[in-house]
Amino acid sequence: MNDNLSTFESLSNELLIHLFQYFNTPDLFQSFYNLNIRFNTLIESLNHLHLTISSNDHSLHLNLLSPYIHSLITIGEVDINLQHFENLHHLILHSPSDKLLNQFENITLSHLESLSIPDILFGMSPIFEQIFSNRFPHLKSCHFFGFETIETIGKWTQLISLRILKIGFIDYHVYKVILFTCPNLYYFKLKMFQSYLKLSNIQTHLNLRKLEIHSEINDWRYNDQLIDSFLGCVINLEQLSISRSISISKLVEFIPDYDWFASIIAIRLPFLKHLIVSLQIEYHSGFMEFISTETRRDLRKFFLNAHQNRYQSRFIIK
After folding, report:
1. E strand or H helix at 19, and its extent?
2. One domain for residues 257 and 187
3. 174 and 230 belong to one structural domain
4. Domain check: are 288 and 185 in the same one?
């Protein structure tokens, strides 16, 4: 009877690999690694191993795990050497320490495809320098917290691989450099701040298809001039999202004369398919009841009339 019983080791390689996917990475290595050569080979062949490390994890055998990790998330001030993660493709750093960020000046992550540092306020300038100096030649996606202003460029070189970029406050000058540096950029999300630099023409970017602009500039007329300049070089854009704010006390000035970028789009974006405009109302004491249902209805009506179904358009009031 015992001869008919199946053991775990008698399972096929395909089935073992399927079962291994139900284990988190530390448990997988602790349970099966170094049991035999076959299990070691199967585990090492897994090419999508994920690991999350927090500042409370002290028992992980990182020297054993790190060469095989495909995706890494750190939370808090963890003490690790990123250089040991030689197969790393995806990296997310939540609230990293300065010590961890400083490693970017020396590490070489030759397989890195995506990098996200979504919640750090300051200290990102050295990271930008490394990213845009093409230290990571396979990098396709970058996401940084949208607070810090990028004012200096340094010695940036072309980053051919980058397709997705979500970044903080930039002016027109930095915008120009990023588009030139990243000729294959497909999706660009940014925050726009007021610049007194002289606006000049830039080389047309042919591959950008999706652009999200967040603006906190109160001067709408100057804001429109900047947006016009930002759109003037992305003629193949298909999706545009603009988020802006306005004081409730000034809102009436823009009803019904404001054209909600319709004239700019008609000139700049012949291939636009989707438009989203999000309006953040800044309330002040004494005006809390000013935005009535009728006013909201009028805003949406004027917005839709301005664009006249030339593309799918959506208006959001917050």
Report:
1. helix 13-20
2. no
3. yes
4. no
Number of structural domains in the chain: 2
If asked whether residues 120 and 209 sit together in one domain, one would say: yes
* 31: three-class secondary structure by DSSP: helix
Q: Residue 122, exposed/middle/buried by CB under 10 A (0-12, 13-18, 19+)?
A: exposed
φ, ψ of residue 246 to 5 degrees: the values are -155, 140
Q: Are 152 and 131 in contact (CB under 8 A)?
A: no
> How far is residue 137's CA from residue 48's CA, in Å, rounded to a whole number?
20
Domain boundary among 216, 237, 258: 237
pLDDT band at 5 (very low <50, low <70, confident <90, very high): very low
What the block records as the tokens of 227 is: 């947006």
Asked, as a colleague might, if the bond just before 256 is cis with ω within 30 of 0, I would say yes
- Share the mean pLDDT of the chain: 86
Q: Is residue 63 part of a domain?
A: no
DSSP per residue over 102-155, as a string? Answer: HGGGT---TT--EEEETT--S--HHHHHHHTTTSSTT--EEEE-S-SB-----S
Tokens 């209805």 -> residue? 297
Cα 270 to the chain's mean position, in Å?
26
pLDDT in tens, 251-276: 766 666 788 999 999 999 999 999 99
Residue 104 CA to residue 149 CA, distance in Å, equals 20
Stretch (H or E) spanning 268 = helix 262-268
Residues 233 and 260 in one domain: no
Measured CA to CA in angstroms, residue 258 lies from 41, 85, 247, 301 at distances of: 65, 53, 15, 12
- Please give the residue range of the domain that contains residue 285: 247-267+276-318
Residue 199 sits in the same domain as residue 287:
no
Partners of 71 in beta bridges: 50, 90
76 CA to centre of own chain = 20
Residues 6+ apart with CB under 8 A from 286: none
